[in-house]
Write a structure and sequence with these properties.
Blueprint (H helix, E strand, L loop, with lengths): L1 H10 L4 H11 L15 H15 L7 H12 L6 E7 L12 H13 L5 E8 L2 E8 L12 E6 L5 E5 L3 H14 L4 E9 L2 H9 L8 H4 L33 H15 L9 E8 L17 E8 L3 H10 L9 H4 L8 E5 L1 H12 L1
Parallel strand pairs: 7-9
Antiparallel strand pairs: 1-5, 1-6, 2-3, 3-4, 4-5, 7-8
Helix pairs in contact: 1-3, 1-4, 2-4, 5-6
């Protein structure tokens, strides 16, 4: 009964038009897939799927739930919040990484089996990344529950691991298992979170080729600048307004501002981050606007949070629309190259002292 409810919960995450292709890739219904009438309601389709699976596997299948759950997650990964971790190795020797999903699953199962006797583990390869589902049971007699599942995405031959929220009781064991399997020495939370897995991977893997350098990474630079080829077609936003009634009095300033923003952010769409948070531990510099703070000598503590569908793109647009002064300060202009979206801003003297303390 519990397995049937789990199937229904997982299938309920999919839109109706996504059911057929996902079930085909799942592969556990066989010929019974063609007997399902997908024009019926989602509830009816779910019932057909559960009945067809139970007929094919009366005693269940160990990987069926995990594989279906991962396939659904890949379709709707943006519904979860992900955190990025960097794996570290002290020696110069390259880590003994694993790219084959079956071998990776075997190694990870051995490592997790040391601490967890009852668990479900599934690994699938999707878009050059290994997607991992770990579902651990709380007790030795209870089955692993869907709400306790942890999902991870690892890009082979890179030190990047992207993980959903982990339970406090299992987090250290899971992280240590990945360190051992991938042959690293340590793992570190780099304080980069978001909902778009592709953007998180881009920010962490290509941190030194963001902004104006992105056009080199994406092969958008003219390799023969002296050749007179066909000019690139101007986009609608680049087309000049020909209405004679409209006169721009600040055309030069506008052009200069756009050039600065293009040098800072580049011509391409920015990676998607839904939140950027700054924690301020600096002296208060707004005495002109708040005279009552003149005698306040201690650090000024506050949090500033930017939220939206794409915050980096929004910061760029603030400069475009003259709602922000350009050039932007470094903590805004370089956010796409810092591989984090949680920052602590301190006065230089305090920041330097914190660095010295950490080194001693």
């Amino acid at each position: 009964m519990m397995e049937r409810e789990i199937f229904r919960k997982i299938l309920g995450r999919l839109r109706k038009d996504e059911l057929r292709p996902v079930l085909q890739e799942w592969g556990h219904l066989g010929k019974r897939l063609h007997e399902i009438d997908f024009s019926h309601s989602k509830h009816s389709v779910h019932s057909y799927v559960v009945k067809g699976f139970m007929k094919n596997y009366p005693n269940g299948h160990p990987d069926a739930v995990g594989k279906l759950d991962l396939l659904c997650l890949q379709k709707h990964s943006a519904k979860r919040t992900w955190a990025v971790y960097h794996l570290k190795k002290e020696q110069d020797s390259p880590p003994n990484d694993v790219a084959d999903p079956k071998e990776f699953e075997q190694r990870l199962r051995r490592e997790l089996g040391v601490d967890f006797k009852k668990m479900e583990l599934c690994v699938l390869q999707h878009e050059k990344a290994l997607w991992v589902r770990i579902c651990i049971s709380k007790g030795s007699k209870t089955k692993p529950m869907l709400k306790n599942a942890t999902y991870c995405v690892h890009f082979p031959h890179t030190p990047v691991l992207i993980v959903t929220n982990m339970k406090a009781a299992t987090a250290e064991s899971i992280k240590q298992a990945f360190v051992n399997v991938l042959d690293y020495d340590d793992i570190q939370d780099i304080r980069l979170t978001g909902r778009c897995v592709k953007s998180l991977a881009q920010l962490s893997l290509n941190k030194y080729s963001q902004g104006s350098f992105s056009q080199y990474r994406l092969n958008q630079v003219d390799l023969q600048p002296l050749s007179h080829g066909k000019k690139r077609k101007r986009t609608e936003s680049e087309e000049s307004i020909t209405d004679p009634r409209i006169v721009f009095v600040n055309q030069k300033e506008k052009k200069q501002r756009l050039e600065i923003l293009n040098d800072t952010f580049g011509p391409n769409p920015q990676p998607t981050l839904e939140k950027i948070e700054y924690k301020l531990e600096t002296k208060f510099h707004g005495n002109h606007y708040a005279p009552g703070m003149r005698n306040h000598t201690g650090p000024f503590h506050c949090r500033v949070k930017f939220e939206g569908t794409s915050v980096i793109e929004g910061i760029k647009n603030l400069g475009k629309t003259e709602l922000a002064v350009v050039p932007l300060p470094d903590h805004l202009a370089k956010v796409h190259s810092l591989a984090k979206n949680h920052f602590v801003l301190q006065d230089k003297t305090k920041a330097n002292k914190s660095v010295q303390d950490s080194q001693t």
